[in-house]
Every structure is written in C-alpha cells, then in structure tokens.
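Late entry, evening session. Most of the bench is empty. Finally got around to the prediction I had been postponing all week. Sequence below, unchanged from the version circulated by S.P.
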Amino acid sequence: MKVVFRISLYSLFVLSFLFIPVSLFAGEMEDGFMVKGDFRWRAELDGRDFNSDTGPGNFSVLRSRLGMGLKQGDVCGFLQFQLPTQLGWNSSALATQGGDFHQAYMKVNNFIRDGVSVKIGRMEMKYGDERIIGAVGWSNVGRVFEGIVIRNETETWWADLFYTNQVERYAGTLGAAEVPDDDFIGLWGEYKPLKLQAFFLSYSTANPNAYGTMQKDLAVNTIGVHYKNEYESKIGVTFDFANQMGKQKIFVPSTEIDIAAWMLLLDISYKVDNELMPKIGGGIDLTTGDDTSSAKIYEGYTNGYYTAHKFRGYMDYFVADQSTGLRDVFLYAKFEPRPDLKAVVKFHSFATNEKYPSAKDGSSTDALGSEIDIVVAHPLNDNLNALVGLGYFMPAADWQQIADPGSTTGTRDADSGVWGFVQLQTKFDMMK
C-alpha cells in the first residue's frame, strides 16, 4: 500500500509539473563516450585542539574519481567511481579502505515534451552558492543524493523539482507493516532576467516511538530566496534568506514542539582598479538560536545540506548546527600579484546568536573567537593546480578552556588554534 500510494502521489506531482509551457532545452554533451578524471592529494597540519603543548598532528588524504558517460540522442548515463583514502591507514595490511560509486545516474532530455529533463539515480546537487544545498567539494568523500530531479527550463526561467530518499526503511522494521522513510523534497527555480532564485524544501525523519514502532518525528519546511549579481558600478551582492517552519515530536514524554527559525547571508564586494588587490568585501552570516525560555518553540536554525567549509571558516570549528545559533561577521580581500598567482585573505568574527554559559566563570556570554584564513592558488601547468592554505584561530576565553592540573580551577585559557594544508589536483575531460 505504501509503494502504490507513493507512486500515485509522485506521478501526480510530476505530471502537474511537466505540462507547464516550456521551450527547447539543450543537452550538456554531444553524442558519444565521455571520460572524466579528478585526482586530488592534500596534506594537512592540524593543531586545532587549542593546546600548544601537544603539538600539531599531520596526515594526508587522496581522493581519486573516474567518471564515464555515454550519450545518444536525448538519453545519457553517467557512472563515477570514487576511492577516498587516508594515506598510510593500514596500507601494508591485506585490506583496503574501499571505494564506491560517487555518482550513478541516467538523464533524459526532452522527456515527454521539449524543455523537460529527468535525472534519476545517485548524484551531486548544488544550488546557489551552496549555502543551502551543496556537494561539500572540500570533503575527501563529498555529499550525494539518491532520487529524481526534474528540470523545466525556458529562456527566462528554470525550475527543478526533486525527491530524494535519505533513509529507506522496509516493511517489517521493528515489526511494523508501514514504515516511514527519511525524505528530502524540494522545488528550486530561477527567474533569469533578475538573477533571482527561490526555493521550498521539506525534510522529514522517523524514529522509534514509545511503543517501539517507527513514526515520523520531525518535519522541517524551509522557504527562501537566493540572489547574486555584480553591477556596472563594480559592486557585487550575494544574498540568501531562508525561513524554517515545522514540528518536532517528542515521544517520551509525549509533546510537540513548533519550529520557527531563519538564516541570513549578506555579502557585499567591490572590484578595485588595482592589479594587486582586485576585490574587497565583507558581510554577515547569521542563523537564529533557540530561546530556552519558550519550551514549546524551537528557534535554532537547521543548516541541513549546505557546504559549511565554504562559509564558516576554513578551520571548520562551526560546521555543525548550533542550538544557540551563530553570527559570523567577515571581511576579505583577494590579491592577484601575477595572472597565475591568486590569494584570498579572510577574517571571521564568530559569536552565538543566543547567550551561553561561560566555560570560565559561568556568566552569560556570546563570544566565540576570531579566525584568519589565507589561501593561495597557483596552476603548475595546464592540468595541475596547487593550493596552499593557513588558518589561525583566536578563541574567546569564555568559550574554550583546556585541562591544567596545576591551576586552582583545573583549567586554563586555551591557546590559539593553527591549521594548514598543501593540495595538488589534476582534472581531465575527454570525449570520443
């Protein structure tokens, strides 16, 4: 019954979307065979534990991706194998870390009518600047989704309707005949003349209830906009806003909590008439936190499937959701001393949006610390790029304390965090 109902619902959902008037949608590649390669090695120096006495750790990782695609007419298929490894991790033993298919999907252009494409399988999804949905390219593994994406495109707008199954559960789980899945469903589109994108996302999960059977316990709906443009005045603007609503069920004791949260990202930049420093910018990235005085309402924003490394500092201290929310005020400058040498310097000032108890004296505070990131990019040849980065974090004494047996309190103020990396990456793309 579950499968029949789901197929009927999705069929109605898809058909209502397909019969919007559309124009011709062109495919991404010519007919034939395609091979894509992406090999990346990165060594990291990790001193992010706030204790200079321990010394920084070091390790290196290698991510190998090989993709193959076939296209004939409006139909194409793509397979991408991935082997993410940490070098030296039990490499001499008769064992392997293993790999998998990072992507495996079929795509049909001009499906049913011109202008509609359907993509089914395991795939990366990226929207906007990846502040809401991203593939987390920095990760040695990366994020993928499994499901279906239907795109409808005209000369003035496009819209994606997608359904992904995050956790599939089968009849008989915990003895139940009907078992709910964890689903992520969305509609994302753009009005091209204004470069304005809008979206609606719905995420739901299920967990065992008080009777031991699976039941939906969380439903989060997110609606928002994304806008990015660079004007003739050389001013660039990136704007993201999302509002979250929904409900969370607590099974023991039985209660229901309303979700009311939001996030805001504003990034303003200016192109400078200077060969050495062509761009400067700054802005704020804000997510709301939970006001604990209202037990029936949860105001903490859930970031979901965003690419955190790209936004919340390269040292990744704040990639997870914060129940107190997060306020990140940032400034950056881009340098280009030579056409083949580019550098970015970025400063972050981090604080919580709601107060938290100080780790030092228990007082109410919001300070977290500040971070400076420097990244330099240099192509070594046509097929090999080098990237070097350094991060330095200065924690607030109220946020970070470390063990100190010689102290009367048993702790002392944390040291600064240090982190760096060197990365080499090569990509190739061949058609036959």
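Two things to note before I forget:
Helices lie at 2-18.
The radius of gyration is 24 Å.
Will write this up properly tomorrow.
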